[in-house]
Amino acid sequence: MADQSNKAAAQAQSAKNAAKAQRTEDGKQAMLDYESEMAATRAKTERLRALRLAREATTPPPPPSASAQKGGSQNREEIGRDAVPVARPAGKERAQELTEPPQTNLAGQLAGACAGIGTSCTFMASATEV
User: Fold this and answer.
1) What's the mean per-residue pLDDT of the chain?
2) Domain count within the chain
3) Does 80 map to a domain?
4) Is residue 126 part of a domain?
């Protein structure tokens, strides 16, 4: 009886060792595959870079676009295909716009939000008005 349990334990250990050896071999093969793919990617990148640099050396650079000649991007609002300049305040008005917090009615916004969910938020509205 003890012989059978020892045999079963030895077979189980042998199966574990075989599975471990298989995993080790699979890992080695996966690493070789990965390294060969990375080498192929590097070679392709080097080849394409050389082609691009050769092409750029033989062709003149394109003329600058109209927007680059004007001095860069401007604040524009897109409407379909046409670009329309957006009017912005200048000087003190612009500085004031940037430094002052926007004027909002937080109490009204909170009351409206609370009414939407069916609860009373009067205590919150009075706290935000201060």
Assistant:
1) 75
2) 1
3) no
4) no
pTM, full prediction: 0.39
Rg (CA), the chain: 36
Note whether 105 and 113 are within 8 A (CB).
no
CA 105 to chain centre: 35
Q: What are the beta bridge partners of residue 76?
A: 85
Structure tokens at 89: 């305040």
Supply the pLDDT for residue 130: 45
37 falls within a domain:
yes
Residue 37: domain span: 1-59
- Residue pair 67/73 in contact (Cβ under 8 Å)? The answer is yes
Residue 130 is assigned to a structural domain of this protein: no
At position 65, the amino acid (one-letter code) is S
Is pLDDT at 89 greater than 90 in this prediction?
Answer: no
- The per-residue pLDDT for range 28-58, each reduced to its tens digit, is 999 999 999 999 999 999 999 999 999 999 9
